[in-house]
């Protein structure tokens, strides 16, 4: 069985690649990082280390790499032969890879009658749907109809903390032992891939929102409040009493919104939250606040991990999300010259002020009550430093 995976980074190698290997796939990684691609072809295997007291090592083999900048035709040919196509490149990169995927699938229409599923494994609601939209922008109407017969873009939720890697070996990747990969079965075509570790569901929405608005919402607290308080790593920030109090409050707010929207059992949701907080404290993982806080403009998006649960909390409880508001305020205070979006966000704030920036980035209407909560919490934030 052949898999093509876009993005040989942390999640690509440390999670998707590992599960595909355990399911006996040969995986072709596609990336723009020539050093990583050369090393994949040179070594033809890499290690995944499970970050706990046992430090168990799994070897991932049956792999190859293609540099999509220098060898796009090889990517097209790999797509023609693939039994599954996956991505883990980051939400903003889906539009960039869409043209090459469109070319590969166009050639496949003539050359291979088998249907194929293209699964975007990104932290966002509707990642595969977005990829499909971007792929379809490169097609004629007739091609769109032919693609819809043969190719599917099921949405997915992926959960495994994989920090930036500091191992001596370039390809080795340390990951937390926990993982969850949920895929929207109802949207798939052809034979459902037999990949142990995937949970297939008919309706993904509750799963992706529960994951994004608990794991990723929670993660923003040690990232942005932690950065505001001067911490460099997630587990150091998690030791701070202010971070502990805001994370408890923020996950109470997003939890209440999720429970009221989807009817999750309260005790099970509380256990889910507790497990996530323990995962953030994993002493065997050193995760930088700047990795978890990367892309603050994306993270302030209307459907992303802060604004959406804050709005849901207000709609379902009629109360103010003061903890989520505090984290959003910390994102607006996030200064990091090494992060392009952080620089751009600060420029936007300097140029047009916070209210207009929130209207543009988070699509909040002028006068939205959430804006007042955020402005008030921005003042409150200073008290955390006292
Ligand atoms: N790291 C985690 O803990 C984690 C967990 C769950 C989900 N995710 C999601 O997985 C996705 C990837 O995150 P990551 O942490 O692995 O990031 P990463 O930066 O480690 O990996 C991204 C990879 O994509 C490659 N890439 C960039 N542009 C490309 C292009 N045009 N074509 C092909 N490859 C390209 C990069 O070179 C890099 O190797 C994101 O959507 C992230 O939200 C990450
Ligand atoms: O990948 P991002 O930038 O959307 O979010 C940063 C982290 O919260 C994220 O990578 C988590 O580690 C991951 O989602 C855990 O499953």
UniProtKB/TrEMBL annotation:
* EC annotation from Swiss-Prot or TrEMBL: 1.1.1.17
Q: What class of enzyme is it?
A: oxidoreductase
Ranges where the Mannitol dehydrogenase N-terminal domain occurs: 1-196
State the Pfam families in the record. Answer: Mannitol_dh, Mannitol_dh_C
Question: What are the Mannitol dehydrogenase C-terminal domain coordinates in residue numbering?
Answer: 203-373
Q: Which NCBIfam families match?
A: PRK02318.1-2 (NF002646), PRK02318.1-3 (NF002647), PRK02318.2-1 (NF002649), PRK02318.2-5 (NF002652)
What HAMAP family does the annotation carry?
Mannitol_dehydrog (MF_00196)
Name used for this protein in its record: Mannitol-1-phosphate 5-dehydrogenase
Annotated organism of origin: Tigheibacillus jepli
């Amino acid at each position: 069985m052949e898999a093509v995976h876009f993005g040989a980074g942390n999640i690509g190698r440390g999670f998707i690649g590992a599960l595909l290997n355990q399911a006996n796939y040969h995986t072709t990684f596609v990336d723009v990082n020539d050093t990583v691609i050369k090393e994949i072809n040179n070594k033809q295997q890499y290690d995944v280390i499970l970050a706990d007291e046992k430090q168990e090592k799994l070897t991932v083999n049956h792999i190859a790499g293609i540099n999509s900048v220098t060898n796009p035709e090889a990517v097209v040919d790999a797509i023609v032969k693939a039994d599954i196509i996956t991505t883990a490149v980051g939400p903003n990169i889906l539009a960039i890879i869409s043209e090459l995927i469109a070319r590969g699938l166009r050639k496949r229409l003539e050359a291979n009658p088998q249907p194929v599923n293209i699964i975007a494994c990104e932290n966002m609601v509707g990642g595969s749907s977005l990829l499909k939209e971007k792929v379809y922008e490169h097609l004629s109407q007739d091609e769109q109809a032919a693609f819809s017969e043969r190719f599917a873009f099921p949405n997915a939720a992926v959960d495994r903390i994989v920090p930036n890697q500091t191992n001596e070996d370039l390809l080795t990747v340390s990951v937390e032992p926990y993982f969850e990969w949920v895929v929207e079965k109802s949207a798939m075509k052809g034979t459902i891939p037999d990949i142990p570790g995937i949970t297939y569901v008919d309706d993904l929405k509750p799963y992706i929102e529960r994951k994004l608005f608990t794991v990723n919402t929670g993660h923003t607290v040690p990232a942005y409040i932690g950065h505001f308080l001067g911490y460099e790593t997630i587990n150091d920030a998690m030791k701070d009493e202010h971070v502990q109090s805001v994370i408890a409050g923020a996950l109470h707010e997003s939890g209440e919104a999720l429970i009221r929207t989807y009817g999750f059992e309260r005790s099970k949701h509380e256990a889910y939250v507790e497990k996530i907080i323990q995962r953030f404290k994993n002493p065997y993982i050193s995760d930088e606040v700047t990795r978890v806080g990367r892309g603050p403009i994306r993270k302030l998006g209307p459907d992303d991990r802060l604004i959406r649960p804050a709005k849901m909390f207000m709609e379902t409880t009629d109360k103010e999300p003061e903890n989520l508001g505090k984290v959003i305020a910390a994102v607006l205070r996030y200064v990091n010259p090494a992060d392009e979006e952080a620089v751009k966000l600060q420029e936007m704030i300097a140029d047009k002020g916070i209210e207009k920036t929130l209207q543009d980035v988070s699509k909040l209407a002028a006068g939205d009550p959430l804006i007042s909560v955020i402005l008030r919490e921005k003042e409150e934030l200073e008290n955390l430093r006292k």
